[in-house]
Write a structure and sequence with these properties.
Helix content is about 85%, strand content about 0%. By secondary structure, the chain is an all-alpha fold. The chain has one domain. Helix 2 crosses helix 8 (about 130-160), helix 3 runs antiparallel to helix 8 and helix 5 (about 70-90) runs parallel beside helix 11 (about 195-225). The chain is globular and about 70 Å long.
């Protein structure tokens, strides 16, 4: 096997692992409210589907990058996941049907992972130099790392609920950055660095306050006798 092929494969693995942190956090937040067994099923299914689709998108990376609104839609979904996590944190156990939550979590993972992975797609496409086997190999090898990381994060948030707020704050920043990095927004608004910081801070505050209040109101309503 040529040394160049092995070096390119190693480069793809390193790139994918370095850029997978945000994805693992989103997966952890999406499956956090599921029972432990379904949490693992959701993380595995969502990650596998996302990686398969991401591999296909990596092959056509040049085309993907021409589309506007991709990162905008992904950023809004990440913000929605952050809000939903805080709202669900106040739910009484077992309020929502588990199968519905599982399917919902899988689709959240797939869509968020794809839209968050534009930088990942570009970097891997460049490192693979057009080799489809390398693309599939590099992305496939990242699956165990992402699944392990996301389940570990979900378990930690279950043991230490305060970490939920930290995770939501990070998702607020990630979502804000994705919105501002969308080609439509950058061409229409030309956001400055100061504007990015202000939007990130505002989104973090809005997510934390709104999620907490909506969740408490919903819990109070559920506990009120009919």
């Amino acid at each position: 096997m040529p040394a160049g092929f092995l070096l390119n494969g190693l480069s793809i693995i390193v790139i994918d692992l370095l850029l997978a942190g945000d994805n693992a956090l989103v997966i952890a937040m999406a499956v956090r409210s599921l029972p432990r067994r379904q949490r693992r099923i959701g993380a595995v299914c969502g990650s596998l589907l996302a990686v398969v689709l991401r591999a296909a998108l990596t092959i056509f990376a040049a085309t993907v990058l021409t589309y506007r609104y991709v990162e905008l839609a992904g950023g809004l979904l990440v913000l929605w996941i952050g809000l939903k996590v805080l709202v669900d944190a106040e739910d009484p156990p077992g309020r929502a049907q588990a199968p519905r939550r599982l399917l919902q979590a899988v689709w959240y993972i797939v869509f968020a992972d794809l839209t968050m992975s534009v930088d990942n797609i570009v970097a891997i496409a460049g490192a693979a130099h057009g080799s489809i086997p390398l693309i599939v190999f590099g992305l496939g090898l990242s699956i165990p790392f992402v699944i392990f990381s996301s389940n570990l994060l979900a378990d930690l948030m279950e043991r230490f609920p305060a970490l939920i707020y930290l995770g939501v704050a990070i998702l607020g920043k990630v979502g804000g950055d994705m919105v501002l990095e969308d080609r439509f927004i950058t061409q229409a608004v030309h956001p400055t660095a100061a504007a990015r910081y202000l939007l990130d801070a505002a989104l973090i505050v809005v997510l934390l306050v709104a999620g907490r209040r909506i969740g408490m109101a919903r819990r109070k309503q559920a506990e009120t006798p009919a």
